[in-house]
Structures are given as structure tokens and as C-alpha cells.
Amino acid sequence: xxxxxxxxxxxxxxxxxxxxxxxxxxxxxxxxxxxxxxxxxxxxxxxxxxxxxxxxxxxxxxxxxxxxxxxxxxxxxxxxxxxxxxxxxxxxxxxxxxxxxxxxxxxxxxxxxxxxxxxxxxxxxxxxxxxxxxxxxxx
Length: 139
Fold this sequence. Notes:
Blueprint: E1 6-13, H1 16-32, H2 38-58, E2 68-76, E3 79-87, H3 111-118, E4 121-127, E5 130-138
Antiparallel strand pairs: 1-2, 2-3, 3-5, 4-5
Helix pairs in contact: 1-2, 2-3
């Protein structure tokens, strides 16, 4: 069953204000889908924000247009799904796609490993200058 029970989204410039707006959309989503258990809400929201923050911090423009971020989040009967996209972005380096944890003294590099620990699946697609991470968490 793939019926969408609740859906929220955001699209705009890839900047710090986008992260706050995405937080607000997640809060509104949980208002619409109050039956989702707190642990699932917390872990999924953390993964979505981490993916979005990764775009804001690391995505580089592919040309003269700035990078835009688009987040589409949906609640289905037994699954949470987020599509987190970077429009007008360069393809990430292969090293950026590694999910291993860095050493304990490292100040960055934990994002993808953290996301993978919080959700059921993470997939990556690249199409027409857009990088999209698809996060799912079975509930």
C-alpha cells in the first residue's frame, strides 16, 4: 500500500534559513500524522535535517545558478519517505558518498553514516544536474 497520508515540502535557496524552514515543515508534518511514534519522528527528522544540512554545507553549483534545495517528505501507512534534492549542483565526489565513520578527532565526515544509522534505506540518484537522496524509514 503506497497511499500518502500526509505530505510536506520545501524548495528554496540552499542556505541556513532553508534548514529552519525544513524543521518547520517537519513539525507541521507530525501535526498531520500524530500517530507516528516519537522515536520514528525523532530519528527520521534527524536524518532529513542532516541530509539537508549536508547540501547547504557542501553542495557546489554546477554552473552560474546557485544551488537550490528541495525536500519532499511523506508519511505512508508503514513508511516515512523523504526526497532531499540539490538542484543545479555538481555531482558529489565519490569520497563524499562513503558512509564510514571518521576517527574520533575528526570534526566532520559523519553525516552519511549517521543518516544510514537512522533510516531503513538511503539511495542516491543523479539526473539532469540534480542530486537526490531518498531516505526511507519503516515504521
